[in-house]
Amino acid sequence: MLIEIRELEDHALEFEEQIAPGVIDFGREVRQTAHLASSGRAQLVQEHYGKHHVINDIRLSGRFSTKVELACARCLEPIAREVAKQFDLLYRPLGADAGREELSVTAVEAEVGYYEGSGLLLEDVLREQLLLALPLKAICREDCQGLCSHCGRNLNLEECTCREAVDDPRWSALKEIREKLEP
Ligand SMILES: [Zn+2]
Ligand SMILES: [Zn+2]
Fold first, then answer.
1. Which domain holds residue 38?
2. Distance 176 CA to ligand 2 centre (A)
């Protein structure tokens, strides 16, 4: 859904969207598994500079919720998560702040982003907000054993002998002997 400046000049916009999985590309790491429900309001915030210079900002506030699947950072198994977030954002035209030292008060209070051209794609905002709401590294459970760095087996599901070989006391005994033998 494109939130157009032209329309906002007329009136504020209330939206209520249901976005099916697959419509927004969240990248390879995140899979949307349920409809994403979002509602909110977009309105125009005009900044006047002098008599003739006006900057059209878009203030976008609302909320969304959905379900996603992420890969565990240790064992790579999928983790199901519910995500919900509220947002209150200000979008300025790209380039509006070029060479300007200070932002206006409204810009400082809200989170600030930039839009390009005739408006702002709601889907782009939701993608960014959802990714921000997720942890950088999700783990399936506190004590996840992860994958063996030698053989790649999932150590939550099965054991492997790689670690034993490394930690085996017989090997360290051998190592000691070898160290003693070395001149
Ligand atoms: Zn895990
Ligand atoms: Zn192993």
1. 2-133
2. 25
Read off the pLDDT band of 156 (50, 70, 90): very high
The answer to the question of residue 88 being in a domain is yes
Six-digit token string for 163: 């670690």
Kindly indicate the confidence band of residue 178, based on its pLDDT and cuts at 50, 70 and 90: confident
Q: 160 C-alpha vs ligand 2 centroid, how far in Å?
A: 5
Give the C-alpha distances (Å, rounded to integers) separating 24 from 15, 31, 140: 17, 10, 24
- 25 and 126 in contact (C-beta within 8 Å)? no
Strands 78-93 and 111-115: parallel
Looking at the fold, whether 80 and 112 belong to one and the same domain comes out as yes
Amino acid at 40: G
Direct distance between the N- and C-terminal alpha carbons of the chain, in angstroms, rounded to an integer: 76
Cα 99 to middle of ligand 2, angstroms? 56
State whether 18 and 97 are in the same domain: yes
How many whole angstroms separate alpha carbon 172 and alpha carbon 33?
Answer: 49
**Predicted structure pTM score:** 0.78
pLDDT at 101: 55
Confidence of residue 128 (pLDDT cuts 50, 70, 90): very high
